[in-house]
User: Fold this.
Amino acid sequence: MGIVVQKYGGSSLADAGRIKEVARRIVESKKAGHDVVVAVSAMGDSTDELLELAEGVSPLPPARELDMLLTAGERISMALVAMAISDLGFTARSFTGSQAGVITDSAHGRAKIIDVTPGRISAAIADGHIVIVAGFQGVSQDTKEITTLGRGGTDTTAVALAAALGAAYCEIYTDVDGVFTADPRIVPTARRLERVSYEEMLEMAASGAKILHLRCVEYARRYDMPVHVRSSFSHKEGTWITPSQPGEEEAMEQAIIAGVAHDRSEAKITVVGVPDKVGEAARIFEALAASEVNIDMVVQNVSAAATGLTDISFTLPRTDGQQAMSALAGIQDEVGYEKLLYDDQVGKVSLIGAGMRSHPGITAKFFASLASAGVNIEMISTSEIRISVIVDEAQVDEAVRATHTAFELDATEVEAVVYGGTGR
Amino acid sequence: MGIVVQKYGGSSLADAGRIKEVARRIVESKKAGHDVVVAVSAMGDSTDELLELAEGVSPLPPARELDMLLTAGERISMALVAMAISDLGFTARSFTGSQAGVITDSAHGRAKIIDVTPGRISAAIADGHIVIVAGFQGVSQDTKEITTLGRGGTDTTAVALAAALGAAYCEIYTDVDGVFTADPRIVPTARRLERVSYEEMLEMAASGAKILHLRCVEYARRYDMPVHVRSSFSHKEGTWITPSQPGEEEAMEQAIIAGVAHDRSEAKITVVGVPDKVGEAARIFEALAASEVNIDMVVQNVSAAATGLTDISFTLPRTDGQQAMSALAGIQDEVGYEKLLYDDQVGKVSLIGAGMRSHPGITAKFFASLASAGVNIEMISTSEIRISVIVDEAQVDEAVRATHTAFELDATEVEAVVYGGTGR
Assistant:
């Protein structure tokens, strides 16, 4: 049956009872004939508790030591899961990221996986053990220091292990039943997707869907690793994330639209009265890049002929807002713009679907649905399989619901169950 | 000035405030010109909390996974101490036992240190860093598995690092001001010893003094490493444990007696009516050894001529009591003894002093002091520098006080301060 890699997040491992439940689920897979490798996050809120301890001794702890501290969280949960499995009569071996051969670069707190050398894991599998690996962590190639992977780290660990071990697929266990056509907290009639392509999932992740982190989906796509996102609180089938099938956009049964995503984490900055000369926009975005500010959408108005001035608007994570405003203020004289406007009361609503490649009129229908719901569009950005708009934050829910209904995504009955918090 | 190794136990690292205080103390040593290497225990009660978590998922967790779990405790405290040092403007690097080169055998939960290869520590010292090492843990030589050292583990880690690094001395920071002539909770007038020899400290540790574990003192003696036991809650000088000086027993100023130790952790078993034949005692103690029961004192009565039967009494840790009684019950037919008596209401009082080698009459004076205090002696055992008696547990305090006074150990004023619990 081959190797299956499973990932369990913090909410799936919140206490002893949950850990025992996870152990039973792992053993079920083993009994079904799989070789099982499991990546685990830290229990429940334990990462936050470790961060609090760090804050207690140092306002700005060194990144190396913060990684050393935080990796204790997964170490604790992996040992407990291994114990719970042993209690069910199966043998398990837990391994730290370093022992599991998760090799990273040296960027503490946001390390990238460079290589996976799972020799010890393979040996343990060959000996008949279930293998538990600490997610979110690795060891740096050059300095042999303990590193952490940052956001989405444990999902990425699971997919990376699956790729390195040649697993049949990777199961991401979380606290929802899969990927839905919209956030069920906003759209109670959202439907679970049986399958989405890597490309659609990437666009959904980039558009604010929190179910999987972008880097994890990117990793899965690079290695063509099928990912099954499902709940650790039920035994329902979840959502499969797989390569797009040839010609599938044309098939009648394939939905045109995969879903509606939204994102409230962005702010909008407008640089007002920029002289409409070659190189002005470049200078602005160079300054932002130098401050390590991540830009999402950009819109430049048509220059007013009378003044020769234009406005440039862009969106960025709210957490980068202050940084960006300082960087821009520093080049006001150089660029000669008039003023800066900062607006963090915006939201992004995105329509995603590989089917829109071959179906014209999607954009028009999307905008019409927003208009009839009285939602004003402030900015627009598109990709081949996504349309995103920036709207007033207060209208995000209404925009999502209107779009969901307009594209006939509503289920006839409520499918979604939200079980707990969100792990890392 | 060379390298100094310091050890801080759990009570010295109970919370953020204590960790900052420890960091200040470490930085003081660095400022004084030392290269400082620190071995730390887990914070306060965190080891007990981890054990509780383990109990929650498995009544009998595998030893390998228990070690994986427990080593998270020191990982957390070492990272926090390193952060607190960094906050004081000095750089620190924390290392796990494995990273620090603490090589052990494969006995999970009670591993022995086989070798110390402190390459990374030396490199970090050369780079000017303060080094923090997780105590109580190592990595097994053959299987590269994470191990823990068991009781006294962090003290032993500190002394082993000191020996491997050629440190000038090893400071064991604890919650008392040093080694006292008796337990200050029983004898308020107990005096702090400025110096004791390894041999005396070994006998005190073996006799129930909890200040240092036997194995740590053994390690220090093997490598002639001076150990300074002192409080992390004060700046007072503590007790130096060093080699005996040539001819020091004869010197007038050297106390004959180092102190009075006591131990309430033992039980006494009497095998009544053993046929007085060659090999009977051997069979009894072979059965006990096969059950991994540790024996302390042994007394065999003179055989009664009329019956040809004798009684054999021995003491052992109370925790081994049930194990021992079962083992002995299993050989009753074979040995042909009459019955077993179990008494866990006993205590051991020991008088220790290198000076007793050259001073006759110590034993007589000890017994006389017990007699005048109305304490009945149940068993006696002696070494070259120690006399131990087993007495009724209820009379232990009285026996200790009477002995302490008889040997003129009482201070004129109270010296001892007890600051907190006891770390591991």
The domain at 346-406 of chain B is CATH 3.30.70.260 (Alpha-Beta Plaits). The longest strand of chain B covers residues 266-275. Chain B has three domains: 3-242, 266-343, 346-406.
